[in-house]
Amino acid sequence: MAIEAGPAVVAALREDIDRLLAAEPDVRADAEDSVHQMRVATRRLRSVLRSYRKLFDSDAAAETVTELKWLAELLGVARDAEVRGERFAKLLDGFGEVPAEITRRLVGAADDAYAQAHEEILTALDGKRYAALREVLTTWRTDPPLDDSLAGDDADDVFARVLGRDRKRLRKLVFAEPTATPADRVELLHDIRKGAKRLRYSCEAAGEVLGADATDLGARAKRLQSALGDHRDAVESREAILAAAGDSTDATVYELLADTEEAAAGRAIAGYPAAAAFISTD
């Protein structure tokens, strides 16, 4: 018997909603990696709602996507600071002893930014806006506002069309990259990364329905996302190091750190062509 698209997408939504809600107590307690886990769950849920939007009431889905974007951006400020602090700490460990002022400007500043951002998250979690979003998501676990015209269609067909659209969107971005100007290329690569992430999440949501075809495609999209994520992390780290240097008397050390991140960015982007090759195949 064919699986209907409505119940199938509800099952995929439920998993992501449960991940998001389960992460909240840990975020409140500032448990290790908790902000990251809640952010990923939020972005996954938003991505699924966007990719499978035609299965839902358009106004309700758009409103929830907007609220999830707000939450993801809030979590993202803290997570980005957390990543910078961890990256800087690891980078400095590789240089042996460095002046304490450099550690303060890099690791200390990132830790301070994380602490401030985490306080803002706690304020938001106690606010009316998050409470309203939480209530919506709790309802959507079992009874989201589906579009009846598509909910009864065959899940295999509907989910395959969604993956096809997301893959086509990503292919268009990848094909545009070789002709991009140097000024535009960095942001285009960022858009390709986001497109790969969206395809990955739509594939993961379709795994129970489409099986290996979806999971294999999702794994390749994840590989592309990871390669470009490593590249962007190194580029942004290099920029932050140079900005932190300011009028420091230890300019040479900052330059060495920046050069290390530039090399890391180069290694990451070298893996991009192979990671993106799958998008050109049928």
TrEMBL record:
Domain of life: Bacteria
Family matches, as Pfam families: CHAD
Annotated CHAD domain residues: 2-282
Protein name per UniProt: CHAD domain-containing protein
